[in-house]
Amino acid sequence: MSQLVADLVDIAGSDAVLTGEDVSSRAVGIWRPQGIQAHAIVRPRTTEEVSAILKLCHDRSQTVIAHGGRTGLVEGADTVQSDLILSLERMNQIESVDDVNRTMTLQAGVLLQAAQEEAERHGLLYPLDIGARGSCTIGGNIATNAGGNRVIRYGMTRDMVLGTEAVLADGTIVSSMNEMIKNNAGYDIKQLFIGTEGCLGIVTRAVVRLRELPRSQETALVAADSFEKMPLILKHMDAYLGGTLSAFEVMWNDFYRLVTTPPAKQRPPLEQSYPIYVLIEAMGGDQENDKVRLEDALAEALDKGLAKDATVAQNGDQRRQFWAMRDDVEQIFQYDPMFIYDVSLQVPYMERYVGEVRDNLKRRFGHHQLFTFGHMGDGNLHFAISAGKDESAHHDVNLCVYEPLRPIGGSVSAEHGVGLEKKPYLDVSRNDTEVKLMRTLKSALDPKGILNPGKVFAA
Amino acid sequence: MSQLVADLVDIAGSDAVLTGEDVSSRAVGIWRPQGIQAHAIVRPRTTEEVSAILKLCHDRSQTVIAHGGRTGLVEGADTVQSDLILSLERMNQIESVDDVNRTMTLQAGVLLQAAQEEAERHGLLYPLDIGARGSCTIGGNIATNAGGNRVIRYGMTRDMVLGTEAVLADGTIVSSMNEMIKNNAGYDIKQLFIGTEGCLGIVTRAVVRLRELPRSQETALVAADSFEKMPLILKHMDAYLGGTLSAFEVMWNDFYRLVTTPPAKQRPPLEQSYPIYVLIEAMGGDQENDKVRLEDALAEALDKGLAKDATVAQNGDQRRQFWAMRDDVEQIFQYDPMFIYDVSLQVPYMERYVGEVRDNLKRRFGHHQLFTFGHMGDGNLHFAISAGKDESAHHDVNLCVYEPLRPIGGSVSAEHGVGLEKKPYLDVSRNDTEVKLMRTLKSALDPKGILNPGKVFAA
């Protein structure tokens, strides 16, 4: 047993510390089956234990990487053999729900789906929703500022977090468990821990804002004859539906065919011949009237020639089928290797940009597979791209996708973060002074650089 | 002419620099007619000029205080004779509006109302709305993370700002003019400039998010027989109205009487005998149906015994009268001196807390005037308190209001900020490690302490 492991056992108990096969038998991440490399995994149960562990590591300049559900897609929690992993998996308690204040206080290791379900038991909604809901954690959501399907209505994780408790690199506990929507008493320091990928501190607990549980949930699939109709459909639906529009998920023909053709489970609710589709959802307060409202809005969109065809889910089963289609992203793994992208850009540039990516791929690779979908209402597109059997194509595919973002101020990461994977491309989206300021923060909060070292930008 | 003034003239031109009476003839702030004390006011026209000015000041350790519309209420932009004021008043250009991307790019000196009106000309909404709209600036809104009447629906300024351009203490321009709703490419450094009261940098330009202009705006005044009904009315209306609820402004009887009794201009739309009232607004997509929806929701609230009486504005004039009543805060100046508060706390504690404040005032002062109102949906209460003619009562009144917040985790500033006024009470709401982390940020970004020195917390 190493001295580090012995000291960790002293702090957190022997059942808290994993070594050897208990480490290497864990997969690095979703869709990445290789085993974790690390000195040990420590699994504290309290903020105080996290503090003691970080103090120990700080004294020894021991690197520490926080682990949540390991569902990130940018190598943001990757480790090397000399690293210590601090897993929040045993800090999985929902501490309280306040029905009147509409807040939930919980530990960072709580699964997103557990938080959603607990809110629902109180007639409330925790609106964050992403495909990884069953295995990702609240702490991971905070560290990556997770987005997902309902950002257009409820914002990203940043917009839902009222308070955090975090531990700094040197073990200092910064408890800032604000429970109010508004609190301008000094700098809002919790922002330091949201979306900073575990580089400035480790979040151990949080207070999140809940909403009233919608009484209606209406879902439609709409087809259009060109991309340029999509922003017009978005504006039309958004205005018509008032504040109830909760999702606007665009699928290009390539993606739509993929997820509605065997071996995919779902069949196409609308013909496969349109160039573009959008899954629209509204969540409101009155089931009957909200459905009529959605149908009226769609009828007007069809009348005006914005949409070519549309179908409204007639019941919960149909709604789940529509979403199962949109969520069946794993169909892309019919191709291997498959590279996944998460970019954002201004909506007016979107059509031209997608064309440029396609042209770049054609020019560089000739034959390739490109699937395009995304949260268009947020300016967020996802690509899944296969360019042959050679893993080494990854860098060239990256250039095909990222370089056209540079002149239009687009982002190489809308919601997935940077991690190691996008670090070489950060300069596409951030200028030198922005990165220098990030470095200033890192130096101020973690001068020894022990927290998630090497992620996001070069030290 | 001092050397500083000569150098400022070199940078920005002689018409950019004000001294002597041109400085002292300006009022310190709204409701504070005394003249400004400062070495000079410099009024740059570009970010580059701001950068050159700050570089000059940094080299000389010259203190700099940014001025927007001077409508802040916490002495957050106060100066002393040796300070330089950097006013953004000539950086008042709206640079562009993108109707499809639904964003506006503008300089920091643009008036809030000008931004609102420009958005409206494009069929869009800039949802931030506060009483000072006609004189406050976008830059001031950002520096103070302004809130206002529609936070419950659209969030605070933080939630509307997509990008900023800011100048650091040493003159470094940090241009981070992101135009997307989602951008997780590295730390979100604009958060450093939002709500930090000009202490970490001076914002010169911004990109803000716009929304579709609501097609309906329905307003109701509702009376209840006890405070405890209010959170229930909020939950009921919020759930019933789906996503359209846009304001929930509570008025205690003391405030309601004040603003519906001469010399106030408005007459009471509902009897003055109820202990508590709420102004409710919904903004939606369908004028006719949204009005019916609001009326149905109110009918149910009356049926259930949540509300005792209610009236819906029948047209735009009535709606404006309802709001004129709520906004007629200046009636409090029938009493002088009058102290104004802006606290936030968890909704379930609100009734007991207001009682404690009342008891504290009675015990300490005997006769006093207390007016209570606020954005209850956000946990935000305002008090206006008069405790006799003696200005020196201010500190004791502060203690009556702030001390009961300490055990319940309330905030001494929901939306006004800290400035100088609330600095002595920051410890009610923030613990030592939170303030220490604020100090770490201040030291990292402004090591010489030249930006808005002495504000928010002690150096």
Concise summary:
By secondary structure, chain A is α+β, with helices and mostly antiparallel strands.
Task: List the main descriptive attributes of the protein structure presented here.
homodimer, 459 residues, alpha+beta, 7-stranded antiparallel beta sheet, 5-stranded antiparallel beta sheet, 14 helices, 31% helix, globular
Span of the ends, CA to CA of chain A: 31 Å
The profile of the biggest β sheet of chain A is:
7 strands, antiparallel
How much of the sequence of chain A is in beta strands? 15-25%
**Share of helix of chain A, binned:** 25-40%
Number of helices of chain A: 14
Oligomer: homodimer
Report low-confidence residues of chain A grouped into runs of 5 or more: none
What is the structural class of chain A? Answer: alpha+beta
What is the rounded Rg of chain A?
A: 23 Å
- Main sheet: strand order of chain A: 17-14-16-15-19-20-18
* Biggest interface found: A-B, 104 and 104 residues
**Any idea what the shape of chain A is?**
globular
Average per-residue pLDDT of chain A, rounded, comes to 96
* Tally of strands of chain A: 20
Describe what you observe in this structure:
Two copies of one chain form a homodimer. Chain A has 14 helices and 20 strands. By secondary structure, the first copy, chain A, is an alpha+beta fold. The longest helix of chain A has 17 residues. At the A-B interface, helix 6, strand 11, strand 13, helix 7 and helix 9 of A face helix 6, strand 11, strand 13, helix 7 and helix 9 of B.
